[in-house]
Amino acid sequence: DSGVTQTPKHLITATGQRVTLRCSPRSGDLSVYWYQQSLDQGLQFLIQYYNGEERAKGNILERFSAQQFPDLHSELNLSSLELGDSALYFCASSNTFGEQYFGPGTRLTVT
Amino acid sequence: GENVEQHPSTLSVQEGDSAVIKCTYSDSASNYFPWYKQELGKGPQLIIDIRSNVGEKKDQRIAVTLNKTAKHFSLHITETQPEDSAVYFCAANAFGNEKLTFGTGTRLTIIP
User: Fold this and answer.
1) CB within 8 Å: B43 and A4
2) Which of A37, B48, B52, B111 has its CA 20 to 30 A from that of B86?
3) Chain A residue numbers touching B42 (CB-CB < 8 A)
4) Distance between CA atoms of residues B28 and A43, nearest Å
């Protein structure tokens, strides 16, 4: 158990809908990262927050957004969902040494 | 940006033998190289990492080597056991850029 928690574990929704994925980092970690894992694209970095502020952005679609709250939990919002958004979404958090610890993931299925 | 290539994509070894997975990276500024193990239905688990100021690091049956000149790093697992069966990912990032770029993964199967 990495100490990073993610909810929900599974999510099934229809095209065009909007969903919110939630992540709680390990105690003491200020950085939260979001990654998408699909069969054809592997693990892709989406976005990073550090202590409430956006720190780095990867290949995140404009339909996707994230935020980190004062209690350091983070949410990833996915809107206007398409079939191709079906994937595993992982959250990771890091300590001062930069080591990233991943949560168990949310499996999103768009039908 | 950084590009990480990983080989082989699949690897089968007899229990007790050694397994080696290799990665190359493109950005000479990269200085942190973690390895993750992902079991079915779980998130990637950090198993070992190495920073650019050392050439080798060991943790029990697992070791990682780094050749900065050639820009490649490798994961070595000795005395493999059935529980080592999983997908292994290498990754790289540069100081000041915490985004991890991952390799495409190696599916390791240990044959009893």
Assistant:
1) yes
2) B52
3) 104-105
4) 21
